[in-house]
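Q: What changes when uridine-5'-diphosphate is included in the input?
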Amino acid sequence: MHDVLICGGAGYIGSHMAQYLSEQGHRVTVFDNLSTGHRGAVAWGELVEGDLLDAAALQRLFAGRRFDAVMHFAARSLVGESVRDPYAYYTNNVTGTVNLLQAMRSHDVERIVFSSTAAIFGEPCSALIDEDHPKQPINPYGASKLMAERILADAAAAYGLRSVCLRYFNAAGALPQHGIGEAHVCETHLIPNVLRSALGQGGRLKVFGSDYETPDGTCVRDYVHVQDLAQAHALAMDYMDVQPGAHAFNLGNGQGFSVLDVIKTAEAVSGLRVPYDAAERRAGDPARLVASSARARRVLKWQPVWTELAPIIESAWRWHNAPAAWGKV
Ligand code: UDP
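A: The predicted holo structure follows.
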Protein backbone atom coordinates (compact mmCIF):
# COMPACT_ATOMS: atom_id res chain seq x y z
CA MET A 1 0.00 0.00 0.00
CA HIS A 2 1.31 3.42 -0.97
CA ASP A 3 0.19 6.85 0.11
CA VAL A 4 -0.07 8.71 -3.21
CA LEU A 5 -0.56 12.40 -3.90
CA ILE A 6 -2.38 13.02 -7.19
CA CYS A 7 -1.91 16.60 -8.36
CA GLY A 8 -4.71 17.33 -10.79
CA GLY A 9 -6.74 14.37 -9.52
CA ALA A 10 -10.06 16.14 -10.21
CA GLY A 11 -9.34 16.20 -13.93
CA TYR A 12 -9.96 13.71 -16.69
CA ILE A 13 -6.92 11.44 -16.41
CA GLY A 14 -6.28 12.19 -12.72
CA SER A 15 -9.76 11.03 -11.67
CA HIS A 16 -9.28 7.72 -13.49
CA MET A 17 -5.93 7.41 -11.73
CA ALA A 18 -7.55 7.91 -8.31
CA GLN A 19 -10.12 5.22 -9.12
CA TYR A 20 -7.42 2.79 -10.29
CA LEU A 21 -5.14 3.29 -7.27
CA SER A 22 -8.01 3.04 -4.79
CA GLU A 23 -9.13 -0.22 -6.37
CA GLN A 24 -5.57 -1.51 -5.91
CA GLY A 25 -5.69 -0.65 -2.21
CA HIS A 26 -3.54 2.50 -2.22
CA ARG A 27 -4.45 5.63 -0.28
CA VAL A 28 -5.02 8.68 -2.43
CA THR A 29 -4.98 12.43 -1.76
CA VAL A 30 -6.02 14.79 -4.55
CA PHE A 31 -4.55 18.30 -4.85
CA ASP A 32 -6.36 20.38 -7.44
CA ASN A 33 -7.26 24.03 -8.00
CA LEU A 34 -10.49 22.97 -9.77
CA SER A 35 -9.69 25.29 -12.68
CA THR A 36 -10.56 22.58 -15.18
CA GLY A 37 -11.29 19.65 -12.85
CA HIS A 38 -14.53 18.85 -11.05
CA ARG A 39 -15.19 18.44 -7.35
CA GLY A 40 -17.65 15.67 -8.22
CA ALA A 41 -14.93 13.67 -9.99
CA VAL A 42 -13.03 13.24 -6.71
CA ALA A 43 -14.83 10.14 -5.51
CA TRP A 44 -11.71 8.40 -4.19
CA GLY A 45 -9.60 9.93 -1.43
CA GLU A 46 -9.53 13.36 0.13
CA LEU A 47 -9.62 16.56 -1.98
CA VAL A 48 -7.25 19.35 -0.94
CA GLU A 49 -8.05 22.47 -2.93
CA GLY A 50 -4.96 24.42 -3.87
CA ASP A 51 -2.71 25.68 -6.62
CA LEU A 52 0.81 24.61 -7.58
CA LEU A 53 1.71 28.28 -7.91
CA ASP A 54 0.97 28.71 -4.19
CA ALA A 55 4.21 27.49 -2.60
CA ALA A 56 2.86 27.99 0.94
CA ALA A 57 -0.15 25.75 0.21
CA LEU A 58 2.23 23.06 -1.05
CA GLN A 59 4.35 23.30 2.09
CA ARG A 60 1.22 22.86 4.24
CA LEU A 61 0.13 19.89 2.16
CA PHE A 62 3.45 18.06 2.50
CA ALA A 63 3.83 19.00 6.17
CA GLY A 64 0.43 17.46 6.93
CA ARG A 65 0.88 14.01 5.41
CA ARG A 66 3.69 11.68 4.40
CA PHE A 67 3.47 10.65 0.71
CA ASP A 68 5.35 7.72 -0.80
CA ALA A 69 4.92 9.01 -4.33
CA VAL A 70 3.45 11.88 -6.33
CA MET A 71 1.60 11.68 -9.65
CA HIS A 72 1.48 15.01 -11.42
CA PHE A 73 -1.40 15.65 -13.85
CA ALA A 74 -2.04 19.30 -12.96
CA ALA A 75 -1.26 21.16 -16.15
CA ARG A 76 -2.70 23.11 -19.00
CA SER A 77 -2.91 20.79 -21.98
CA LEU A 78 -4.45 22.41 -25.04
CA VAL A 79 -2.22 22.91 -28.07
CA GLY A 80 -4.22 25.77 -29.60
CA GLU A 81 -4.55 27.66 -26.31
CA SER A 82 -0.81 27.31 -25.71
CA VAL A 83 -0.08 28.98 -29.05
CA ARG A 84 -2.33 31.91 -28.10
CA ASP A 85 -1.21 32.22 -24.46
CA PRO A 86 2.29 30.76 -23.97
CA TYR A 87 2.95 32.58 -20.66
CA ALA A 88 0.06 30.69 -19.05
CA TYR A 89 1.60 27.41 -20.20
CA TYR A 90 5.14 28.11 -19.02
CA THR A 91 3.87 29.43 -15.69
CA ASN A 92 1.54 26.53 -14.93
CA ASN A 93 3.47 23.68 -16.46
CA VAL A 94 7.04 24.71 -15.67
CA THR A 95 6.90 26.99 -12.60
CA GLY A 96 4.10 24.86 -11.09
CA THR A 97 6.18 21.72 -11.55
CA VAL A 98 9.29 23.29 -10.00
CA ASN A 99 7.21 24.41 -6.98
CA LEU A 100 5.93 20.88 -6.57
CA LEU A 101 9.41 19.38 -6.86
CA GLN A 102 10.79 21.82 -4.29
CA ALA A 103 8.04 20.96 -1.82
CA MET A 104 8.72 17.25 -2.41
CA ARG A 105 12.43 17.82 -1.83
CA SER A 106 11.97 19.72 1.39
CA HIS A 107 9.83 16.84 2.71
CA ASP A 108 12.01 14.00 1.38
CA VAL A 109 9.45 12.67 -1.08
CA GLU A 110 11.57 11.08 -3.78
CA ARG A 111 9.27 9.55 -6.40
CA ILE A 112 7.18 11.22 -9.07
CA VAL A 113 5.28 10.03 -12.14
CA PHE A 114 4.94 12.93 -14.55
CA SER A 115 2.24 13.40 -17.22
CA SER A 116 4.07 14.17 -20.40
CA THR A 117 2.86 14.18 -23.97
CA ALA A 118 3.47 13.19 -27.57
CA ALA A 119 3.62 16.94 -28.23
CA ILE A 120 7.25 17.00 -27.00
CA PHE A 121 8.30 15.32 -30.27
CA GLY A 122 6.93 17.86 -32.77
CA GLU A 123 6.65 16.77 -36.40
CA PRO A 124 7.35 13.03 -36.59
CA CYS A 125 10.24 11.82 -38.71
CA SER A 126 9.27 8.13 -38.46
CA ALA A 127 6.01 6.20 -38.75
CA LEU A 128 6.11 5.15 -35.10
CA ILE A 129 7.46 7.50 -32.46
CA ASP A 130 9.70 5.78 -29.94
CA GLU A 131 11.55 7.30 -26.99
CA ASP A 132 14.67 8.10 -29.06
CA HIS A 133 12.77 10.18 -31.61
CA PRO A 134 14.08 13.79 -31.86
CA LYS A 135 12.32 16.12 -29.44
CA GLN A 136 11.48 19.37 -31.23
CA PRO A 137 8.08 20.57 -30.02
CA ILE A 138 6.18 22.85 -32.40
CA ASN A 139 3.93 24.47 -29.81
CA PRO A 140 4.34 25.98 -26.31
CA TYR A 141 2.39 23.13 -24.70
CA GLY A 142 4.89 20.53 -25.94
CA ALA A 143 7.81 22.83 -25.13
CA SER A 144 6.58 23.35 -21.54
CA LYS A 145 6.34 19.58 -20.99
CA LEU A 146 9.76 18.97 -22.48
CA MET A 147 11.22 21.60 -20.12
CA ALA A 148 9.65 19.80 -17.17
CA GLU A 149 11.13 16.49 -18.39
CA ARG A 150 14.56 18.15 -18.49
CA ILE A 151 14.10 19.49 -14.97
CA LEU A 152 13.29 15.98 -13.75
CA ALA A 153 16.46 14.61 -15.39
CA ASP A 154 18.54 17.36 -13.75
CA ALA A 155 16.88 16.67 -10.39
CA ALA A 156 17.77 12.98 -10.68
CA ALA A 157 21.42 13.90 -11.17
CA ALA A 158 21.53 16.62 -8.51
CA TYR A 159 19.22 15.34 -5.76
CA GLY A 160 18.62 11.67 -6.53
CA LEU A 161 14.93 12.27 -7.39
CA ARG A 162 13.32 9.20 -8.98
CA SER A 163 10.95 9.95 -11.83
CA VAL A 164 9.05 8.39 -14.70
CA CYS A 165 7.71 10.60 -17.51
CA LEU A 166 4.81 9.06 -19.37
CA ARG A 167 4.17 10.59 -22.75
CA TYR A 168 0.57 10.05 -23.63
CA PHE A 169 -0.61 10.07 -27.15
CA ASN A 170 -4.39 10.75 -27.29
CA ALA A 171 -6.08 9.90 -24.01
CA ALA A 172 -9.62 8.73 -24.68
CA GLY A 173 -12.55 6.77 -23.25
CA ALA A 174 -14.29 6.76 -19.87
CA LEU A 175 -15.41 4.53 -17.03
CA PRO A 176 -19.18 5.11 -17.04
CA GLN A 177 -19.65 2.39 -14.39
CA HIS A 178 -17.63 4.58 -12.00
CA GLY A 179 -19.24 7.86 -13.07
CA ILE A 180 -16.09 9.38 -14.56
CA GLY A 181 -15.26 10.54 -18.05
CA GLU A 182 -14.04 13.45 -20.10
CA ALA A 183 -15.89 16.64 -19.13
CA HIS A 184 -14.05 19.79 -20.07
CA VAL A 185 -16.04 22.98 -19.63
CA CYS A 186 -14.82 24.25 -22.97
CA GLU A 187 -14.40 21.02 -24.95
CA THR A 188 -11.78 20.96 -27.71
CA HIS A 189 -11.00 17.24 -27.94
CA LEU A 190 -12.10 15.20 -30.90
CA ILE A 191 -13.98 12.25 -29.40
CA PRO A 192 -16.16 14.26 -26.97
CA ASN A 193 -16.89 16.78 -29.72
CA VAL A 194 -17.85 14.02 -32.15
CA LEU A 195 -20.20 12.47 -29.58
CA ARG A 196 -21.74 15.82 -28.67
CA SER A 197 -22.39 16.54 -32.34
CA ALA A 198 -24.02 13.11 -32.71
CA LEU A 199 -26.26 13.96 -29.76
CA GLY A 200 -27.11 17.34 -31.29
CA GLN A 201 -25.45 19.11 -28.34
CA GLY A 202 -22.42 20.80 -29.78
CA GLY A 203 -23.59 21.90 -33.23
CA ARG A 204 -21.91 20.50 -36.33
CA LEU A 205 -18.41 19.11 -35.83
CA LYS A 206 -15.56 21.02 -37.44
CA VAL A 207 -12.93 18.79 -39.03
CA PHE A 208 -9.73 20.81 -38.74
CA GLY A 209 -7.80 20.29 -41.98
CA SER A 210 -8.58 17.98 -44.89
CA ASP A 211 -5.36 18.47 -46.86
CA TYR A 212 -2.79 16.80 -44.61
CA GLU A 213 -0.46 14.19 -46.09
CA THR A 214 -2.44 11.31 -44.64
CA PRO A 215 -4.56 8.66 -46.43
CA ASP A 216 -7.81 10.65 -46.17
CA GLY A 217 -6.31 14.12 -45.67
CA THR A 218 -7.34 14.42 -41.99
CA CYS A 219 -4.98 14.18 -38.99
CA VAL A 220 -4.03 10.77 -37.67
CA ARG A 221 -3.78 10.13 -33.92
CA ASP A 222 -3.17 7.19 -31.56
CA TYR A 223 -6.06 6.85 -29.08
CA VAL A 224 -5.30 5.16 -25.77
CA HIS A 225 -7.85 4.46 -23.03
CA VAL A 226 -7.47 6.39 -19.75
CA GLN A 227 -7.72 3.18 -17.73
CA ASP A 228 -4.71 1.80 -19.62
CA LEU A 229 -2.87 5.06 -18.89
CA ALA A 230 -3.71 4.61 -15.20
CA GLN A 231 -2.33 1.06 -15.31
CA ALA A 232 0.96 2.41 -16.71
CA HIS A 233 1.24 4.96 -13.88
CA ALA A 234 0.75 2.28 -11.24
CA LEU A 235 3.45 0.17 -12.92
CA ALA A 236 5.74 3.23 -13.08
CA MET A 237 5.32 3.72 -9.34
CA ASP A 238 6.40 0.12 -8.72
CA TYR A 239 9.29 0.57 -11.16
CA MET A 240 10.65 3.52 -9.16
CA ASP A 241 10.74 1.33 -6.04
CA VAL A 242 13.60 -0.61 -7.65
CA GLN A 243 15.03 1.85 -10.20
CA PRO A 244 16.71 5.14 -9.31
CA GLY A 245 17.06 7.87 -11.93
CA ALA A 246 14.84 9.59 -14.50
CA HIS A 247 12.95 7.45 -17.00
CA ALA A 248 10.52 8.09 -19.84
CA PHE A 249 8.08 5.94 -21.79
CA ASN A 250 5.72 6.56 -24.71
CA LEU A 251 2.15 5.34 -24.22
CA GLY A 252 -0.13 4.64 -27.15
CA ASN A 253 -1.80 1.81 -28.99
CA GLY A 254 0.60 1.87 -31.93
CA GLN A 255 -2.27 2.28 -34.39
CA GLY A 256 -3.25 5.51 -36.10
CA PHE A 257 -6.82 6.62 -36.78
CA SER A 258 -7.82 9.66 -38.79
CA VAL A 259 -10.45 12.19 -37.76
CA LEU A 260 -12.78 10.60 -40.35
CA ASP A 261 -12.10 7.10 -38.90
CA VAL A 262 -13.15 8.41 -35.49
CA ILE A 263 -16.34 9.90 -36.95
CA LYS A 264 -17.23 6.62 -38.74
CA THR A 265 -16.55 4.52 -35.64
CA ALA A 266 -18.61 6.87 -33.46
CA GLU A 267 -21.49 6.60 -35.94
CA ALA A 268 -21.30 2.80 -35.83
CA VAL A 269 -21.13 2.72 -32.01
CA SER A 270 -23.93 5.24 -31.42
CA GLY A 271 -26.19 4.43 -34.35
CA LEU A 272 -26.37 8.20 -34.95
CA ARG A 273 -25.06 10.40 -37.71
CA VAL A 274 -22.28 12.87 -36.91
CA PRO A 275 -22.92 16.10 -38.84
CA TYR A 276 -19.61 17.72 -39.79
CA ASP A 277 -17.98 20.37 -41.97
CA ALA A 278 -14.45 20.74 -43.26
CA ALA A 279 -12.65 23.63 -41.52
CA GLU A 280 -9.23 25.29 -41.59
CA ARG A 281 -6.24 23.51 -40.04
CA ARG A 282 -5.79 24.16 -36.31
CA ALA A 283 -2.52 25.89 -35.34
CA GLY A 284 0.13 23.57 -33.88
CA ASP A 285 -1.36 20.25 -35.13
CA PRO A 286 1.11 17.72 -36.60
CA ALA A 287 -0.33 15.51 -39.37
CA ARG A 288 0.30 12.19 -37.66
CA LEU A 289 1.23 11.10 -34.12
CA VAL A 290 1.47 7.36 -33.49
CA ALA A 291 3.46 5.78 -30.66
CA SER A 292 5.78 2.90 -30.33
CA SER A 293 5.12 1.69 -26.79
CA ALA A 294 7.47 -1.28 -27.06
CA ARG A 295 9.65 0.02 -24.23
CA ALA A 296 6.72 0.46 -21.81
CA ARG A 297 5.53 -3.04 -22.64
CA ARG A 298 8.97 -4.55 -22.22
CA VAL A 299 10.28 -2.63 -19.22
CA LEU A 300 7.16 -1.69 -17.24
CA LYS A 301 5.28 -4.84 -18.36
CA TRP A 302 2.45 -2.55 -19.49
CA GLN A 303 -0.40 -4.49 -21.08
CA PRO A 304 -3.09 -2.22 -22.50
CA VAL A 305 -6.53 -3.81 -22.30
CA TRP A 306 -8.36 -1.39 -24.62
CA THR A 307 -6.59 -2.10 -27.90
CA GLU A 308 -9.45 -1.40 -30.34
CA LEU A 309 -10.91 2.00 -31.21
CA ALA A 310 -14.61 0.96 -31.11
CA PRO A 311 -14.72 -0.09 -27.42
CA ILE A 312 -12.77 3.03 -26.45
CA ILE A 313 -15.32 5.22 -28.20
CA GLU A 314 -18.16 3.10 -26.86
CA SER A 315 -17.04 3.72 -23.26
CA ALA A 316 -16.95 7.46 -23.99
CA TRP A 317 -20.34 7.22 -25.68
CA ARG A 318 -21.95 5.56 -22.65
CA TRP A 319 -20.47 8.30 -20.43
CA HIS A 320 -21.63 11.14 -22.69
CA ASN A 321 -25.07 9.62 -22.95
CA ALA A 322 -25.48 9.38 -19.18
CA PRO A 323 -22.79 11.43 -17.46
CA ALA A 324 -22.76 11.92 -13.72
CA ALA A 325 -24.59 15.05 -12.62
CA TRP A 326 -21.28 16.94 -12.23
CA GLY A 327 -20.35 16.21 -15.86
CA LYS A 328 -23.29 18.16 -17.28
CA VAL A 329 -21.38 21.37 -17.84
N1 UDP B 1 -10.11 17.78 -34.17
C1 UDP B 1 -11.10 18.14 -35.08
N2 UDP B 1 -12.27 18.70 -34.61
C2 UDP B 1 -12.47 18.92 -33.27
C3 UDP B 1 -11.45 18.54 -32.35
C4 UDP B 1 -10.29 17.98 -32.85
O1 UDP B 1 -10.94 17.96 -36.29
O2 UDP B 1 -13.54 19.44 -32.89
C5 UDP B 1 -8.87 17.16 -34.68
C6 UDP B 1 -7.61 17.93 -34.29
O3 UDP B 1 -7.30 18.93 -35.24
C7 UDP B 1 -6.56 16.80 -34.26
C8 UDP B 1 -7.37 15.58 -33.80
O4 UDP B 1 -8.74 15.90 -34.06
O5 UDP B 1 -6.10 16.55 -35.56
C9 UDP B 1 -7.19 15.27 -32.32
O6 UDP B 1 -7.37 16.48 -31.60
P1 UDP B 1 -7.55 16.52 -30.03
O7 UDP B 1 -7.78 17.96 -29.64
O8 UDP B 1 -8.59 15.53 -29.59
O9 UDP B 1 -6.15 16.00 -29.44
P2 UDP B 1 -4.63 16.48 -29.68
O10 UDP B 1 -4.11 15.58 -30.77
O11 UDP B 1 -4.63 17.94 -30.03
O12 UDP B 1 -3.98 16.20 -28.36
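Observations recorded in class: The longest helix spans residues 86-106.
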